[in-house]
Amino acid sequence: MNSNPICEMLGIEYPIIQGGMAWIADADLAAAVSNAGGLGLIAAMNSNGEQLRAQIIRAKELTDKPFGVNLMLMSPYIDEAVEVVCEEKIKVVTTGAGNPAKYMEKLRGAGVKVICVVASVALAVMVERMGASAVVAEGCESGGHVGDTTTMALVPQVVDAVNIPVIAAGGIADGRGMAAAFMLGAKAVQMGTRFLTARECNVHDNYKEKVLKAKDRDTIVTGKTLGHPVRALKNRMTRNFQAKELDPNVTPDELEKMGAGALRLAAIDGDVKMGSCMCGQIAGLVNSEGTCEEIVTGIYRDALALLSKSAEEVVWEK
After folding, report:
1. Cβ count within 10 A of residue 156
2. pTM given for the model
3. Residue 215 sits in which domain range?
4. What contacts 17, CB < 8 A, 6 or more positions away?
């Protein structure tokens, strides 16, 4: 991994990227991950240009290491966000929730590396043709908006289909997950859920506690009927949403209103009963806090140890 293409491309020490979680991935978390040797990301989400600029300026005050911005392409302020990213000379963005085609020329012209989050082989091939520098192959185990294919199945198929580096995401929270991702052909990993319990993460303590207490079957996917399924921890909100989603008398508009503002309610206000605690299936494995440095270096160290001795432990039976 000494010549890791993602590390070389982004100027980072460890091939670990922090997910761009809306209402959670702020300048403090991004800077802490970057200072630890990974790549921190600021979530642009629905922020206007000046709000995003303020976060970027703060991150620059907290770190001299590379960090990036996650662009939500369906944001009403996406044009402003792209302009700010170029003006502030951000070196890398990840994109999701939409088609990046409109912004590729401008971003690449400004020297920005564009890494697209994809949930299918077809999307990976499409964004490679557009000029993406890498892709994040995100399996349905991840938190937040999800696709249909698991990480184990998606990553090797994407690796075989494109010529740019592939970053694995979804269901990765320790060295075992990272080692598995590299065995599947990924060159780096992206993690969101693991950083929810980082000491530098400003998500509400109620949210952190719910993640720490989560078990393997404590997440649920809702919103499939709306065309944008979301994985979150089970609570009163998700049970209500699921019941309404199965009710033929409830309209899509009513469902959309139920979900509006739910993530902020949990992440900022700490209402983990009626808010949406977006979280991946791997939450059951996240049972401790820690600094970003402890998380990044620990996972990388454990992954290296596993990869170095894996061949010695394999027993082939005839």
Report:
1. 17
2. 0.92
3. 205-281
4. 6, 38, 39, 41, 94, 136, 167, 188, 189, 190, 191
